Amino acid sequence: MFTKIFKSDYIFQFIFILLIGIVLFIATLFSKSTINTYNSSPMLFLLNNIIGNNTFLIVTINYILLFVEAILLKRALSSNELIPKNSLLPAFIYIITINSILDFHIVHPILFANLFLILVLQIVLQIYNKPESYIDVFNLGVLISIGSLFYFPSVIFFHHHSFIFFSL
C-alpha cells in the first residue's frame, strides 16, 4: 500500500503526509500539552514565557516544526541523489518515527535542535564535492551552536571526535 502511495503523484504524497501528521497529533491537541522546560536551555525558557500554556498553539508549533523538518530531510536526501526526487518516503518515516516517541508530542528541545542538525546534514552532504569549503565549515559551526541553544547535547556534533570532522 505504501509503495503505491509513494510512487504516485507528488501532490498526493504531500497531502497524505500532511493528513498523517494531523491524525497523529489530534489526540495531543485534546490533552494538556506544555513545553518541556525541564533541564532545558535558555531559548526554550524564552519560548515558554512567550507562549505560556496555550495548548493549541503549542501543538500547532510542534506540528509545523515536525513537518518542516520532514520536508528539509527529504530535500537534503534528494538533492544529494540518495533518494528519488519525487518521493516523500523519508519525510513519512521521519514523521512516524518522531510521533512514536510520546515525549515529542509536546514542544521538546530536541525537536528544535533537530531542525538545525538536519541543515547540518545537508551541508555535510554537499561539502563532499567542493574543493574549498571553509565557509561551509563555518556555517556548520554556527548551525550547531544555534541548535545547542535549544538542546545543549547537540554541541557534541562540534567536538573533534564527532560527526562533522569525521565526515570531512
Description:
By secondary structure, the chain is an all-alpha fold. The chain has one domain. It has 8 helices and no strands. Helix 4 runs antiparallel to helix 5 and helix 4 runs parallel beside helix 6. The longest helix has 25 residues. The protein starts with a helix and ends with a helix.
As a whole number of angstroms, the C-alpha radius of gyration is: 17 Å
**Secondary structure: helix percent:** 55-70%
Number of helices: 8
Low-confidence stretches: none
Task: Itemize the secondary structure elements and their pairings.
Elements (H helix, E strand, L loop, with lengths): L1 H4 L4 H20 L12 H10 L3 H25 L9 H11 L9 H19 L6 H17 L12 H5 L1
Helix pairs in contact: 2-4, 2-5, 4-5, 4-6, 6-7
Question: Brief overview, please?
Answer:
This protein is 66% helix and 0% strand. Helix 2 runs parallel beside helix 5 (89-99) and helix 4 (55-79) packs antiparallel against helix 5.
Sum up the structure in keywords:
single chain; 168 residues; mainly alpha; 8 helices; flat
